Design the sequence.
């Protein structure tokens, strides 16, 4: 197997999932779209991951690579039926690329907040063995306001009804972050757009408190990430065997 990863800023990479991929001997190619790297042919890859970033899905004038990225996501999910995992912006791009609506939230979600599985989420294999309600790192001001046709909403929060969704059998998007490592919050706090949203939402100087709160919960975050990864990889392997 070989995975393809779309990145939109260097500090938003697969995080802890890199360790899991290394343990499984699965190589991946990361394409840094914001730096002008080209999207390769999808036929060389078995799955597509799309990470977060400070831009919004509708900002094609400022970030023209968003247009071919959406086209690649459509090809991967609709034409090739490739397994897909999108986090934060990657979740929103899944929604936008497949005909849903993404827009600004009434109030942003920033910090460690509760996410709750829907009835469909509790029954979905990607969340097998995971708590119905879980703490998650949120850092976004946009949301999937209208899901693509046929999408199943798997998780929600009071401020964001679509916290996770599945499109088809193998395409998943999560609005919240599960890829966390001990470096995530400090590194993201250095991104001007993220620092501003953090201060605007939680108050000036909130970064150290968020860093400490995330550190205290990191074992839980990483266990949940491991479970989600194993669940998703189980689906990928089933799909791979079926295609042989």
Sequence:
């Amino acid at each position: 197997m070989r995975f393809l990863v779309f990145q939109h800023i260097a500090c938003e990479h697969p995080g802890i999932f890199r360790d899991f991929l290394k343990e499984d001997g699965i190589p991946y190619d990361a394409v840094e779209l914001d730096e002008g790297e080209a999207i390769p042919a999808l036929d060389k890859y078995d799955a597509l991951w799309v990470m977060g970033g400070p831009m919004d899905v509708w900002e094609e004038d400022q970030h023209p690579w968003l247009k071919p990225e959406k086209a690649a996501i459509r090809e991967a999910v609709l034409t090739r039926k490739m397994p897909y995992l999108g986090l934060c912006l990657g979740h929103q791009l899944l929604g936008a690329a497949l005909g849903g609506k993404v827009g600004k939230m009434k109030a942003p979600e920033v910090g460690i907040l509760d996410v709750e599985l829907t009835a469909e989420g509790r029954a979905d294999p990607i969340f097998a063995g995971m708590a119905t309600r879980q703490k998650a790192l949120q850092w976004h001001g946009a949301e999937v306001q209208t899901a693509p046709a046929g999408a199943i909403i798997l998780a929600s929060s009071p401020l964001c009804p679509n916290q996770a969704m599945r499109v088809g059998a193998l395409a998943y998007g999560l609005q919240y972050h599960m890829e966390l490592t001990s470096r995530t919050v400090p590194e993201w706090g250095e991104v001007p757009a993220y620092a501003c949203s953090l201060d605007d939402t939680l108050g000036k100087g909130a970064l150290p408190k968020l860093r400490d709160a995330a550190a205290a919960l990191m074992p839980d975050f990483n266990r949940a990430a491991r479970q989600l990864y194993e669940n998703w990889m189980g689906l990928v392997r089933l799909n791979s065997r079926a295609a042989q």
About this structure: The mean pLDDT is 96. Strands lie at 3-7, 28-32, 47-50, 84-87, 101-117, 133-146, 152-156, 164-167, 171-174. Helices lie at 17-23, 66-79, 89-97, 119-123, 184-188, 192-202, 207-243. The radius of gyration is 17 Å.
